[in-house]
Write a structure and sequence with these properties.
CATH class of the largest domain: Alpha Beta
Shape: globular
Radius of gyration: 20 Å
Distance between the termini: 15 Å
Number of domains: 2
Order of helices and strands: EHEHEHEHEHEHEHHEHHEHEHEHEHEHH
């Protein structure tokens, strides 16, 4: 039995893990040890996802909580090292670009455990983003790299990485397909918030490049307030964003924005599908908007999900001026169909590749 430690700690990773954990469970000869780092520790951003998506209860929870990048990454590395030494996994599976991803890669590499990176090869080409640093290091240390798109494969090739690189499609697309109909049946949030389908704007803001630069954050809030004066703007607010807004006296800028607590996965799917427009700085929400065919404005200077922009469904907004954000919000609807992220079978392919890799490695020992 080959043991795989899966490292997750943040909302996008919970979503990605749902279809892949299911695939691992269904594969003979593989056993998953699920480690939750506690990077996202708020119940609305963690526990509810496990329940709604049917993700197995974590075998290990590190409960690291918040802190600076160094504090958080260091605490996760320490906890993961202990977990890896005690469980002796054959592989460590990491997702995306969070501090949990970086810590998992470094801890595994130091112990000479092969690493599989799901969502490899993404690049924003902006190393001021902590996520960009995390994904570059994770890719460099990984033994097998699973790319969601051809663009990601090309990025790795340009950096000299061609061995054990596979374009598999996106596990988030797997999840979007699987849970879209479930959300239709179970979520009541659109009704509970008295929203009209396709007549509201959905907003998420959490990235440091926006929350840690008050001019950018205040511009975004001013633009949203102007939009809320003319129509409904729904803002499920990340705890970190709320803390920054309250600490810096920016609450008056919220105006008529309908601020709500973070929502569960199924409620978020429902809010996304029924929105007329999504405005976000989240990489995952950008893609979810694309999957659900909802126009999106990305409140960032660049995006790693270039396919969504090329397809016309996503528009980058310059947040240095309120007027530019408002102009982006008037963007046009997508120009072509969804086709860049696979066929919704990424989890099955990734699982098969992992099994084959571990079988070969076992034979060669």
């Amino acid at each position: 039995m080959k043991k795989i430690i899966t490292v997750i700690g943040a909302r996008p990773q919970f979503i990605k893990a749902a279809p892949l954990s299911k695939a691992i469970k269904a594969t003979s000869g593989l056993k998953e040890i699920l480690v939750h780092t506690g990077q996202h520790y708020d119940a609305n951003m963690s526990d509810v996802f496990f329940k709604e998506m049917g993700i197995p209860k974590p075998d290990i929870n590190l409960n690291v909580g918040s802190g600076s990048h160094a504090e958080q990454t260091g605490a996760i590395m320490k906890g993961l090292e202990t977990a890896m030494i005690s469980t002796k996994p054959d592989m460590v599976l990491i997702y995306g670009d969070t501090n949990s991803t970086l810590a998992g890669a470094i801890a595994a590499a130091k112990l000479n455990i092969p690493i599989a990176h799901v969502e490899a090869g993404l690049r924003s080409f902006n190393r001021a983003m902590p996520e960009e640093v995390n994904r570059i290091v994770a890719d460099k240390l990984s033994a097998i790299l699973f790319c969601p798109t051809q663009t990601a494969v090309d990025n790795l090739r340009k950096e000299g990485m061609i061995r054990n690189v596979f374009e598999t499609g996106d596990v988030m697309y797997d999840a979007a397909i699987a849970f879209s109909k479930v959300a239709e049946k179970k979520s009541r949030i659109v009704r509970d918030l008295s929203l009209t389908e396709k007549a509201y704007i959905l907003v998420t803001i959490h990235r440091a490049e926006n929350t840690d630069v008050l001019k950018r954050l205040s511009n975004i809030l001013k633009a949203l307030s102007k939009l809320a004066a003319k129509g409904t703007v729904v803002f499920p607010m990340h705890p970190r964003t709320r803390k920054v807004i309250e600490k810096n006296g920016l609450v008056p800028l919220l105006g008529k924005i309908k601020v709500v607590d973070p929502v569960g996965f199924l409620d978020m799917v429902s809010l996304e599908k029924n929105a007329g427009l999504i405005m976000t700085d989240s990489g995952g929400v950008q893609k979810e908007a694309y999957f659900h065919r909802v126009p999106c404005v990305t409140l960032r200077d660049e995006t790693e999900w270039v396919e969504t922009v090329k397809a016309g469904w996503n528009t980058l907004a310059d947040v240095t001026k309120v007027g530019l954000i408002l102009a982006a919000a008037k963007g046009k609807k997508g120009k072509r169909e969804i086709k860049d992220y696979g066929r919704g079978e990424a989890a099955r392919e990734i699982c098969g590749r992992i099994a084959a890799f571990l079988n070969r490695r076992g034979t060669n020992k």
